[in-house]
Amino acid sequence: MNINIGIKETDRQAIVQGLSVLLANTYTLYLKTHNYHWNVTGPMFNTLHLMFEQQYTELATAVDEIAERIRALGEFAPGSYSAYAALTSIPEDSSIPCAEDMIRNLVEAQETIARQAREVIAIASEASDEPSADLLTQRMQAHEKTAWMLRSLIA
């Protein structure tokens, strides 16, 4: 069936594209954070191990919410490693970094997603797509807060 929810086709496609990148970035950050949870070492082990678990759990929920919004807009959500690799702007690690570099890498990734969400929210707002704008606002808040908490560990 055709989609007729009050959003122009070109706007809907632009929002879906932005949300697809957000999904890929969020999933990539989920994997990175989970990897760090498993492999962190050093004096901050317990603190970081628990913090990373909270973060990847929140990201897992976010992945589902973003994908479901893409579906509500009438498109299929990307869901493969190759699709995510083509869309993401968050780099993979080639090795296991030290704890402090893990924190720095996660700050950078969190800020990347916040910036990307801010770009898409402009498109969603212009198209009067309040549900997408609300989702993007929530994601910006979560990523900016997490980046702040991580930055605070390495003053």
Automatic annotation (TrEMBL):
One of its GO terms (molecular function) is oxidoreductase activity, acting on metal ions. This is Non-specific DNA-binding protein Dps / Iron-binding ferritin-like antioxidant protein / Ferroxidase. Gene3D superfamilies: 1.20.1260.10. Keywords: DNA-binding. Transmembrane segments: none annotated. Residues 19-154 form the Ferritin/DPS domain. The keyword Lipid metabolism does not apply. It comes from Aequoribacter fuscus. Belongs to the Dps family.
